[in-house]
Amino acid sequence: MARRDWRRLDESDVRVRPGKGSRPRSKRRPAHTDAVPAMVVSVDRGRWRCAVEADPGSVVTAMRARELGRTPIVVGDRVRLVGDVSGRPDTLARIVGVEERDSVLRRTADDTDPFERVVVANAEQLLIVTSLADPAPRTGFIDRCLVACYTGGLQPVLCLTKADLATPDGLLASYADLEVPFVVTRHDRDVPELIDVLHDRVSALVGHSGVGKSTLVNRVVPEAGLATGEVSAVGKGRHTSVSAVALPLPCGGWVIDTPGLRSFGLAHVTPDEVVAAFPEFAEAAEECPSNCGHLGPPDDPGCVLDDVVTSGAARRSRLVSLRRLLASRAGTDS
Ligand SMILES: Nc1nc2c(ncn2[C@@H]2O[C@H](COP(=O)(O)OP(=O)(O)OP(=O)(O)O)[C@@H](O)[C@H]2O)c(=O)[nH]1
Ligand SMILES: [Zn+2]
């Protein structure tokens, strides 16, 4: 995965300016040696709810310390807290540091918007929740999620719901060459494979309205109590939560639901970042003309990736899949 690329884009790294002799002592950043490590579980109007690492049951409300300026802090961020970390009502701790992120789920508002934002930090995997029918699967959306995973350092997992209504075979065939792991679920059966996938990991979940994501979350986190089956209710979505929230799994680990995330603008992603997720093509791509989109002729006549296939070093079907992802980056199917 293209780890080096998204690390470069990380904004959360709070740097301490090298001390200048003339600077008054009081201006120095305090050491905060007593800070408590915690993970952000939700964000609401300038307040962060943080689960204390040593005791995930203890959730503390915190503000961002002034010394952090406008450093973005999102769900999944690992932070350091000082002040009142008791979590008692009406107490407020302070976030004084944000750890470097291991992964970032990023999006641009739409493909013409140059400003990306991080939606979830540090998720190890992204469960792409897709129903096999009602609504029908949207491969364009899945492909865009895969691009977000490959360029943000997350492991994608296809989570195919409503298997009582349709077979997963056709859809799985489209993703066989990408070797995307998958689980297949239906609401009238137990979900041991899903528990296996989620156990002890931090997993973000995305999916379109009606695919059964709330049904799934409620099964693995019984206390979550998410509303389900209200797809057609008037005004739905207007007053419901639209930001990500991390929920602790009884079996260990976290699921991060992303109710507001139903499309992925990928304007911030470059073709080279996508190719970097395909080891058999990454090196050859350096021989391509600069600014090659790697789509091949007619868009990119000088692209050398076809030669890799001709030489026998890669399968044609892998290149077809890679180019499908590259095309989805610029596509409109959200
Ligand atoms: N047949 C079938 N229906 C299901 C299954 N899972 C969920 N449903 C139904 O699909 C509808 C949508 O399920 P939800 O869990 O609310 O879907 P959601 O993805 O959370 O949708 P939003 O709440 O709009 O984000 C409900 O009527 C569920 O009862 C399944 O495995 N099979
Ligand atoms: Zn190329």
TrEMBL record:
PROSITE patterns in UniProt: ENGC_GTPASE, G_CP
Subcellular locations according to the entry: Cytoplasm
GO MF entry, a single one: metal ion binding
Segments forming domain CP-type G: 112-264
Basic residues: bias regions: 17-30
Feature: compositional bias, Basic and acidic residues: 7-16
Keywords: Cytoplasm, GTP-binding, Hydrolase, Metal-binding, Nucleotide-binding, Ribosome biogenesis, RNA-binding, rRNA-binding, Zinc
InterPro entries: G_CP_dom (IPR030378), P-loop_NTPase (IPR027417), Ribosome_biogen_GTPase_RsgA (IPR004881), RsgA_GTPase_dom (IPR010914)
Major site of localization recorded for this protein: cytoplasm
Cofactor: Zn(2+)
Binding-site residues, Zn(2+): 288, 292, 294, 303
Residues given in the record as GTP binding sites: 161-164, 207-215
SUPFAM superfamilies for the chain: P-loop containing nucleoside triphosphate hydrolases (SSF52540)
EC category: hydrolase
GO biological process: ribosomal small subunit biogenesis
Domain named EngC GTPase: residues: 121-262
Superkingdom, taxonomy of origin: Bacteria
Region annotation Disordered: where it falls in the sequence: 1-34
Gene Ontology annotations for the cellular component aspect, listed alphabetically: cytoplasm
Cofactor remark: Binds 1 zinc ion per subunit.
EC number, UniProt record: 3.6.1.-
Self-association and partners: Monomer. Associates with 30S ribosomal subunit, binds 16S rRNA.
Family stated for the protein in its record: Belongs to the TRAFAC class YlqF/YawG GTPase family. RsgA subfamily.
Its job: One of several proteins that assist in the late maturation steps of the functional core of the 30S ribosomal subunit. Helps release RbfA from mature subunits. May play a role in the assembly of ribosomal proteins into the subunit. Circularly permuted GTPase that catalyzes slow GTP hydrolysis, GTPase activity is stimulated by the 30S ribosomal subunit.
Name of the protein described by the UniProt record: Small ribosomal subunit biogenesis GTPase RsgA
Native species: Saccharomonospora xinjiangensis XJ-54
